[in-house]
Amino acid sequence: xxxxxxxxxxxxxxxxxxxxxxxxxxxxxxxxxxxxxxxxxxxxxxxxxxxxxxxxxxxxxxxxxxxxxxxxxxxxxxxxxxxxxxxxxxxxxxxxxxxxxxxxxxxxxxxxxxxxxxxxxxxxxxxxxxxxxxxxxxxxxxxxxxxxxxxxxxxxxxxxxxxxxxxxxxxxxxxxxxxxxxxxxxxxxxxxxxxxxxxxxxxxxxxxxxxx
Length: 212
Description:
The protein is mainly alpha-helical. Helix content is 64%, strand content 4%. The protein has helices at 8-31, 43-73, 95-103, 114-124, 129-136, 138-152, 156-170, 179-184, 196-211; strands at 84-85, 125-126, 186-187, 194-195. The chain has a two-stranded antiparallel ribbon. Helix 1 (8-31) packs antiparallel against helix 9 and helix 2 runs parallel beside helix 9 (196-211). The radius of gyration is 19 Å and the shape is elongated.
């Protein structure tokens, strides 16, 4: 009987809630701060915390994608059963062997770009749930990856792609292309209203549950 995937959904949710709790505590602290105190928490501090929280969540998302992929290569069963491998491929005997086969001599693989991950799944598995789940959210995930890149990189290209992402997601650009300003902003389409950081976190949480 195939082994079931570990509960990556629970692990991801724990990281997600921890990151959201950080920004919530800072929001409360800023709201109650004495404006005469030069060491008070300021808006720019809170916006930075939103960026750090987002990176923490998105990094964990990438880790989960990789870890589930490797275990599917080993024959682990998800809620939809075992994946079928392409002809000529066999289930790996260990996680380490799966990783070595997947890397194929490279030092690492990137997991932020959904198109690349979908293609990776398509070339390894036959019509897998893993591929279908990511394909169903590919465009949203590309926008989320652009936000991640803007937090990590200061190049003009990263700023331009971030601006394009926020225009699609929220219908506007943000001053200085600051991800924290966007992540703290309220989504006009959410009912009830919700800031973008917890909204994105919730979407990723849902996807991890579907991959599980």
